[in-house]
Design brief:
The protein contains two helices and nine strands.
């Protein structure tokens, strides 16, 4: 495990978002395309775990997202954030909040 400084951690923009749309990507079984709402903006993302979750299970779920990660093309689609998850045997368990936290709230 690499140790990072607090300054390294402070560079991460981690926020609360809500998944508002999802759709399957033709020919892909492990990822889906999604749209997240960050309160003041919406972003397209690629969401893993499509082999474990039906798209409709993800809609309206509040999740924790890394928003200042460099955009990356995955399965031919640009992803503009990364949903954070615990990973157990390759199955993602999306990090969420249980209380009514406003979209876009920063995680510190």
């Amino acid at each position: 495990m690499a140790i990072i400084t607090y300054d390294d951690f402070a560079k991460l923009e981690i926020r609360v978002a809500k998944i508002i749309e999802v759709e399957r990507i033709p020919g892909k079984t492990k990822v889906i395309k999604g749209l997240i709402d960050l309160g003041d903006e919406k972003r397209q993302v690629i969401i893993g775990g499509a082999d474990y979750y039906q798209p409709e299970e993800l809609v309206n779920r509040k999740v924790i997202v890394l928003t200042n990660l460099e955009p990356r093309k995955i399965a031919g689609v640009e992803s503009n954030a990364m949903l954070l998850a615990a990973d157990l045997n390759d199955k993602p368990f999306w990090l969420t909040v249980n209380e009514d936290v406003p979209l876009g709230t920063k995680i510190k």
